[in-house]
Amino acid sequence: MTEKSSPAADAAEAAALEAGRLLFSRECLFLVSAADEKQLPSFALSEVAFAGRSNVGKSSLVNALTGRKTLARTSNTPGRTRLLNFFELGERLILVDLPGYGYARASKTDIAQWSKLTRGYLKGRAQLRRVCLLIDSRHGLKASDKQVMDELDLAAVSYQVILTKADKMKAGALARMVEETGKALAKRPAAHPDCLVTSAEKGTGIDSLRAALAALAEPPAAE
Questions:
Q1: CA–CA separation, 120 vs 177, rounded Å?
Q2: For 117, which DSSP code?
Q3: pLDDT above 90: percentage of residues in the chain
Q4: Do the domain assignments include residue 106?
Q5: CATH value at residue 186
Q6: What is residue 156's predicted lDDT score, i.e. its pLDDT?
Q7: Residue 145 lies in a domain
Q8: Which of 99, 133, 169, 192 has its CA 20 to 30 A from that of 148?
Q9: Which residue numbers delimit the EngB-type G domain (predicted)?
Q10: Taking a C-beta distance cutoff of 8 angstroms, is the pair 98, 49 a contact?
Q11: Domain range for residue 210?
């Protein structure tokens, strides 16, 4: 028997979803790209970064969240995004699209440069509230994902796993993946305990992710 939620819990959830809707309905502007550590900008607003293996769907998810088809460039070619791209959302939150990792065909020089840039960004970034770590729900956690999680745990950077491409999975297999991922996260000191299930193509989980990110944004300005 499923336990019923309380009216207070329902009201709180509805308020959170509405806050997310309002935030992501506001203008989202591209600010700057950084190709090396010297180019990393400094902002007063809180930041949320999106990380994941190459071709996991980071750009597609950012576009789905903001309701823009071309805000973040998408590509069928893994490893194409080589810069840190910064966007300002409604003057309340900075969204950061990080370069993909785990692309085997990239040169060792490129991989070293990307790794140095991303690590330089993640370390000591006081305004970074959370890293959304995107994992393809069809494949689960790979060795490269676990390596990134190790680094985030060591740096005490809060992160939350976002399972992508859920529309490509059957319900039973997806449920098992959520359970397996949750067990892995329970052993991670910097990991958010809940993973979110999303599909940029179908819109699954987008409202919930918007709500979670809105809770990390700066308070709205008084009217």
A1: 31
A2: H
A3: 65
A4: yes
A5: 3.40.50.300
A6: 92
A7: yes
A8: 169
A9: 44-219
A10: yes
A11: 10-214
